[in-house]
Each structure stands twice: as C-alpha cells, then as structure tokens.
Amino acid sequence: MGEALGLFDAFYLMIDALNETSQESVIVEALLHLCSKHSNLRVLVTYCDIEVYVEKRLSSEHSFQSLSAKIRTEIKDKVTSEADGTFRWAKLCMDRLSTLRTGRDVRRALVDIPSTLNGFYAGILTRAPQQDRAMAREALAWLCFSLRPLHLGELAEAIILEGDEVNIDDDDRLTDPSAIIEICQDLAHVSDHHVTLAHDSIRTFLQSDWIRTSPASEYALDAAACHQRIMRKCLAYLRLEPFTTGPLDKLRHVKARFAAYPLLNYATNMWPIHSERFPLADEDEKLILDFFETKKLSHGGAFEAWVQFVLRSADLDVIRHTEPLYYAASFNMTSVLQLILRPEYKADVNKRGGRFSSPPLFVALWRDNVEAAMLLLRAGADPDSRDTSGQTSRRLATSRKHHEVVKLMKEMSPAGAKRAPTWNWERGAEDEWAMEDALSQARLRSYMDEDS
C-alpha cells in the first residue's frame, strides 16, 4: 500500500465495521502508522448504527408491528444494550425474534438469546435436522475453503459426491439445489446464482477452538483437512466412469460434458491448487500418481480427459503429447513436482507440452511459478532449450526479472554453455533481443493465457 500511496495526491481508504474484528487494535495501529508516513492518506472508519437498524426493523416488519409497544421497547433495549457494537449479532437477534408467533415467545427468547456470535451460530447448527447435518457440514466446508465463489449447481454437486461413486445421475442429486440454503440453516447466502457464507465470522467460528468443545463440535473444520478432502473429491470426480475413456474428438462433446457435470469446471482447474494447501499424505501421493498413470492407457484415460478439460480443445495431438510434469509446472504444484521428479520415476524434465510445445521450465516461468522453476532447474532442466516461438527459459527468466532463477541457471548450466546476453536492468532488452522478443511475446500471448 505504501507504493500505491505514492502515486496519488490524495488516497481515500474506507473501512466498515472495524469494531467487529478481533484484530481492531492491530488494524488501528497500522492505520496510524500509515497516516504518520503519508500525509495524503484519508481514512474513513464507519460503524453501523445498531439502534437505527433495530428501530427500522421494529417499525417496518409485520412480525414486529403486531407486538405490543412494550415488547417492542424490550426488544430494542435488549438488542442495542448487549450488541456491544456487533452488527452481525444484532441482526441474528432480530432474525430470530422475527420468526416467533407470540409476544410471550418473544419475551422468553429475549431471556435465552446467546450473548456471543459463537453461541448464536452453535444454536443455529444444533437445531439442524439430523438428516441434514452431514450435508450441511460438507457444504460449509466447501464454502469456507473453495478457491473461488461457487455456483449453486457446483455446491449442490459437491455435497452429494461420495468417494466410491463411478458415476452420478439425477437420482443422486438434490431435487432442488436451492435447498442448500435451508440445509445450511441460513448460514449461506445466494446472490446471482453464487453461494457464499452469510458472513465471514462464520468461517472464523467453524475453525475456532471454541466450537471444538461446544454442542456444535461435529461442525468444527480444519483448513488442511478440508483442502485435502476437496482435492480428493475433485480427483474422484475427474475419474468418474464417463471420463475414464480419455479425450473426445469433437469440441461440442467436450462442452456437453461441462453442461452435464456441474462440478467439472471447478474440479478441473482447482484440484492442483488445493493439493498445495496441505501436506500430502502417502494416500494423497498415491491418488495423484494413479491419476497420472492413466495417461499410459491406450485411450489416455482420465488424465488426458482432464488435459482436454483444461485446454477446452479437441486437439488430440497436443493432449497426447503433454506429460504430467508439464501441468505440474504450469499449476505450480511444487509438492507434486518433488514427487514425480524423484529418480525412480525417470521423468523427462525437458519433455515439451501444451499448445506451443514448450518445455516445463518455460511454462513455469511464463506463469511466474518461481518455486516450480527452481525445482526443475535442480532436476536438470535445460534453460537454453528453445520452444517453437524461439524463446528460451533463460531469456524469459531474465525479462521477467526472476533474479534468483537467473542466478541458479548460471550455477547449474554446464561450463562452456552458450549464455544469453547480459541484461541491463535499467535499459531493458538488448537490441539483438528486441525484435525477436516482441514477435515471440505476441505469438505466445495469443494462446498461452488460455493454456495451462
């Protein structure tokens, strides 16, 4: 942010609900430090007026309007005095009270209202019907740890997937995907067909020490365990029976698979990233290696089907000539790279792949996957091998200013190897590179940003 502040005469920073975070003092200290260093910084901190919010709901909602003035006053006094500045707690109170049928029930509820958000969330979850609890926990895990917002259909597919299934049909699926909101006891929210947690405090609650000793302990979540479970589910999905026969020869058939299998897009693109969010157990290594091994089947198996889903292409030649190592480098799957670069697997570290027949080292650098590039170099990748654009990995690393990679290239290259011209960091590219690089970069960008 310090760099950004230097670019503007005045920089406005608006922060809402600062009082609702446990890190308020840390944030305030950081803001004060920034303000002392940058006179152009303007900070606006807002707090929701809970009293105004409560009065608005009491006067506008039928469930409250039908109550006596005395009970409405009791509600206002209770909620505003005990909210302690936490708007989320006040909202949950009002939501709970709005469902009650009589003033007597409201009075009883006012006595029993939990004093904390944790207590509120625990009460919500423990009231869930027993038959919905496993599904609710699964949905909340995906909502907490998915790597992008999920479409309603994706989440509905994810929570019904069981590890031993070979296929999924409509009999396995929810009859109404929107039932997820009810299953999650309104802790989830749908907007524009995307599902998110209703509030970020829910994620904090589900990972807290508090929940582990509470009546809602069955819902407790661990980040590493959830990423592991999601990755395993994604791999299981990619190995469903329809995908085990390898890639298809018509693009329209590929598109039809995405339409028929709602989780396919997420599973295709996100399982490699989930694999980097937890330490791989022996079982995980076996799952991944077994998935990669399907490439050796005559039809390419689930691996080549996955490559086709990544590329959204029916170019079977590209698909069949691309090895697992290439995609591990492209997705920065460093744990997987360390696994398949073991000597016993005899991986060809320079085997080209992708639409542009690029070496794994080149695609790692193109994606700015520095750690993957370093692993490949230490495994013997050739930094001076050219792809069909004429680019070398050494040149790409230099132009991207990956200093540590360039340094390692110099250390790892054999004596007498041809060196690329010395880069002048202030001046830019050497003249002899300029035209070739411009042409190469233009050709690369035409497809590499869509390739993986």
TrEMBL record:
- Locate the region Disordered: 381-400
Does the record bear Zinc in its keywords?
A: no
Identify the keywords attached in UniProt to this record, alphabetized: ANK repeat
Show me the ANK repeat boundaries.
356-388
Q: Does the keyword Iron-sulfur apply?
A: no
Q: Which domain of life is it from?
A: Eukaryota
State the InterPro entries in the record: Ankyrin_rpt, Ankyrin_rpt-contain_sf, GPIID_WHD
User: What region holds the GPI inositol-deacylase winged helix domain?
Assistant: 131-221
PANTHER family linked = AMELOGENIN, GPI INOSITOL-DEACYLASE
Protein name, entry field:
Ankyrin repeat protein
